[in-house]
Amino acid sequence: MTNTTAGECNNVMTNTTSCECTNVMTNTTSGDCTNVMTNTTAGECTNVMTNTTSCECANVMTKTTSGDCTKFMTNTTSGECTYVMRNTTAGKCTNVMTNTTSRECTNVMKNTTSGECTNVMTNPTSGECTNAMTNTTSRECTNVMTSTTSRECTNVMTNPTSGECTNAMTNTTSREGTNVMTNTTSGDCTNVMTNTTSCDCTNVMINTTFHECTNVMKNPTSGECTNVMKNTTSGDCTNVMTNTTSGDCTNVMINTTFHECTNVMKNTTSGECTNVMTNTTSCECTNVMTNTTAGECTNVMINTTFRECTNVMTNTTSGECTNVMKNKTSGEWTNVMTNTTSGDCTNVMINTTFRECTNVMTNTTAGECTNVMTNTTAGECTNVIINTTFRECTKVMTNTTSGECTNVMKNKTSGEWTNVMTNTTSGDCTNVMTNTTAGECTNVMTNTTSR
Q1: Is residue 255 part of a domain?
Q2: Which residue segment(s) compose the domain that 99 sits in?
Q3: Helix (H) or strand (E) holding 70
Q4: Is 383 helix (H, G, I), strand (E, B) or coil?
Q5: What are the pLDDT digits (tens) for 221-247?
């Protein structure tokens, strides 16, 4: 859609002033930006990040003025960044992260100044960082992790010094790692790496003891694991690994006790889970796992009690959920699930009261909504969003009450919106957002000022 006023924003971010963005749209005024669009002025931003000044970014777009960035391009002026771009000066940022000063980062790019970091590069100095992190001083990090001191890491690189680390892990000392590689010294690791000693970790997780992992490789010692294979010994794991002991975790999450998970594999012990499979016992989980006790969560979310979920799977116990199925008991949901009671939530969101949602399904109680369905009552929501009162939304649907919205349609009354839509009044919102008042927003974000 096209936003008609300034201050629009896009997926998973908060625009300040002159930082409009949308998911797949072009704003018509200054500061417009989209997930796949061109920003025209400075201060634009893109998916999952907050641009300040001189930190424009877009997911798959090219800005035409200073601060241009694209998903697969190099910015030519200062402050430019992209999802897969190269920052030229300090303070750059990329998808899912905020760079401060002298902390450039991108998803798949190289910074040219001190503190450079990329998702697929080698940082030459301390303070490097990669996607989805904020480096302080002498704290290198990769995707979703913070290194302590003298711990450089990248997503697909080898640090030349001790304490290297890769995506989503914290190296202590002598623990080098890369995304899909083996370090030549002790404690080497990859994106879902293989550490030969304790404290190994996988992609966006920290293993405690004896949890070796690799992305698509085998470790030569006990605890071998790969991205698409079974672990043969205790503590094995994959990209979203299967730990057989306590402290196992999956991609972008930390399991506490007895929560084994893998990306596309089965665990051989209780608590098996995969990214695209059905768990057979309690404690099962997937890439977005299912915990059987309180605090269970799905993909980027925390479920409370008896709310097991997987990414694309069905749990066989109470609280079952799948990506494209109906829940049978209370608290069940799918990746973008259907909650049948209050407090249910979907993928990357927490529903409060009577705000059930699913990805491609219908809830059976009031407040039903799906990713591609019609909400029937007030307070309904869609994938990754929290609707307040009278703000129903779906990805590709029309609400039947006030506050209707669809993915590709215009709103008819106040508070209506769509995923890729045009808001007509204040407080409109789209998929993956929270509408307040006079603060329209788009996918996965909340505008802070009236926009």
Answers
A1: no
A2: 1-113
A3: none
A4: coil
A5: 222 232 223 322 222 333 333 332 222
